[in-house]
């Protein structure tokens, strides 16, 4: 078999991520921390729960006295302190209420009957399955003081933010959001809202990539339209590099006479690789641009919107993850599925836009009907990319690896 002249996806990722260091941290309020990535480990300051409490509405008592009629000696609602339980009595208790000293069991109210003099009785048929400790949430069951609450590199989503709040933590140190400059090349590209001249198209890449990059954890510091002129392309690339950790371009990296990005990159900085063994996304350039303080990483995506969309998931997501120090962004989750399509590949690996359905027999991958790199509608309903290896054929019913499109 002839040697593939194109760079593999794995080699491209290695080149892109080589030498990447996590960005510095910054201290922010927790109210502003949603979606940010922790730059430090956080240890628990409090036990959770902070005291033994009831898991339900019922009665707290001594298990040894479960067969006796018991008078109610106190009432304990959530947030109220409890006093020691008088022997031979029980406490009316509500969910979250503190277990009184001396009680070792909570009986749910449905298993209790009461008589006219205010005593409660647990019927034999209902009480025989009750064990000491039932329905009590013990202090520290979830977290104990000194335990690692959250690890460095954790993305702060709903549950993690809840854990911080549960500890009374109001501020955290997070990794600075990677700064990204997003440049759109081509005289034919027009921003929505402006009239189209003959031969022009609206810029679908910019809002699409801006949304993805922000969901990956980046901050867009610059957007610009780059005309089909080498001098202006070079000027805007230099400007973008000084404002961003990553410069992303769309278009201008192919072999046409008006594709100036690759040439400008080679003159200004370093082209690490170009032309990849993947479909869509073959003309994808990776490199570096020098800045006054070091360098900015460069990712030149193809102009076709589907190629840009797929390239963002395969390359920009792990790059942003590396800059954030967030391991969960390093690779998309892989799900094996049964193909509901056929596909044949040659020297390039295919990333097909598919929608996964989950059946009793397992996941099924349904491919968008038109997989052309200019057909953005193939991405709208897709929730995964089916990976078809080079020099292979997938028949309907075969198992296929699918990359689940999870933004963070």
Automatic annotation (TrEMBL):
Pathway: Cofactor biosynthesis; molybdopterin biosynthesis. The keyword Transferase applies. Keywords: Magnesium, Metal-binding, Molybdenum, Molybdenum cofactor biosynthesis, Transferase. GO terms for biological process: Mo-molybdopterin cofactor biosynthetic process. It holds the Pfam family MoeA_C. GO terms for molecular function: metal ion binding; molybdopterin molybdotransferase activity. Its cofactor is Mg(2+). It catalyses: adenylyl-molybdopterin + molybdate = Mo-molybdopterin + AMP + H(+). InterPro entries: MoaB/Mog-like_dom_sf, MoaB/Mog_dom, MoCF_biosynth_CS, MoeA-like, MoeA_C_domain_IV, MoeA_C_domain_IV_sf, MoeA_linker/N, MoeA_linker/N_sf. Catalyzes the insertion of molybdate into adenylated molybdopterin with the concomitant release of AMP. This is Molybdopterin molybdenumtransferase. It comes from Aidingimonas halophila. The lineage of its organism: Bacteria, Pseudomonadati, Pseudomonadota, Gammaproteobacteria, Oceanospirillales.
